[in-house]
Amino acid sequence: MILVKLGGSVITDKSRLRTFRKASCDRLSKELGQARAALAVVHGAGSFGHIEAKKHALHKGYKKESQIQAVASVQRDVRELNLKVLESLIDSGIRAVSVPPASAGTFSGGKLSSFSKTPFEVQLDLGLIPVSFGDVVPDRSMGFSICSGDLMMEALAKAFRPKLVVFCADVDGVFDRDPKRSARAELITEFDGTSLRNMRRTQARHADVTGSIYGKLERMLVIARHCEKCMIVNGNVPGRLRNAIAGRQVIATRVVPG
Ligand code: IP8
């Protein structure tokens, strides 16, 4: 099985509220349509989730009554994005079905407290492609919390042990410094636990409601232990995802356990 995350920064414009990048999503859907193996897809929330979730501190759980309206509207917004992604996938011949995180998992303290692979497994067995996403979820201890797409990626990797896990980002992979600020930034082609320890913790400051890049890479290192190959590719470059899933050599960061 191949497990693919479509990053929120690729399928949406993260700085403009609820702005879908249809052309990018349609291209990625076509690339996915060429996969010859079983697929599962997870997508991020981008500007359909992060802007309002941050404004109302939804990642902190229930603090005040005024957040409840935001829980409802952010849930609706991420479903609107999920529907757009489903339409794009179906238009390119992929038999996609939606699996919201709370239909497979229960949550407590912002973490998964139980996870059932059954809704995914039953649909995969039928030849369907389950599509999950980052969402606002009921949380036993916090009232509600945010489940990131990456948390679903981890649960799915543990449950299905995919051959390949691909994260589509808006950069070529992980760099030794911020490539948007420094022309001297170099791509790290193989990222492991030592690379993580060498990363400057200051990067943690650039956090959104689902955490910092540091935390996301920590999770990818866990995922790498549950699949044959885990990589980050640039979803904005046509053909990268297609070539990665076809097993061709591509510009990427390979995340390796250890
Ligand atoms: O974009 C975030 O999921 P992510 C979910 O995968 C919400 O981190 C609702 C902000």
Query: Which small-molecule ligands are present, each listed once?
Result: Isopentenyl phosphate
Count of alpha/pi helices: 9
User: What is the string of helix and strand elements?
Assistant: EHHEHHEEEHEEEHEEEEHHEHE
Rounded mean pLDDT is 95
The order of strands across the largest sheet is 3-6-2-1-9-13-14-12
- CATH topology-level name: Carbamate kinase
Tell me the number of strands: 14
Secondary-structure content class: alpha/beta
Assign a percent range to the helix content: 25-40%
Description:
By secondary structure, this protein is α/β, with parallel strands linked by helices. It has one domain (2-255): 3-Layer(aba) Sandwich (Carbamate kinase). It is 35% helix and 22% strand. The chain is built from 9 helices and 14 strands. An 8-stranded mixed beta sheet has the order 3-6-2-1-9-13-14-12, sandwiched between helices. The longest helix has 25 residues, at 67-91. The model has no long low-confidence stretch (mean pLDDT 95). The chain binds Isopentenyl phosphate (IP8). Isopentenyl phosphate is lined by residues 8, 44-45, 49-50, 53, 74, 78, 134-136, 146, 148-150, 209-210.
Topology of this protein?
Layout (H helix, E strand, L loop, with lengths): L1 E5 L1 H4 L10 H12 L5 E5 L6 H6 L11 H25 L4 E3 L6 E4 L2 E5 L2 H8 L3 E5 L1 E5 L3 E5 L1 H12 L3 E6 L4 E2 L11 E2 L1 E2 L1 H6 L14 H12 L4 E6 L5 H6 L7 E3 L3
Parallel strand pairs: 1-2, 1-9, 2-6, 3-6, 9-13, 12-14
Antiparallel strand pairs: 4-5, 7-8, 10-11, 13-14
Helix pairs in contact: 2-4, 6-8
The structure holds Isopentenyl phosphate.
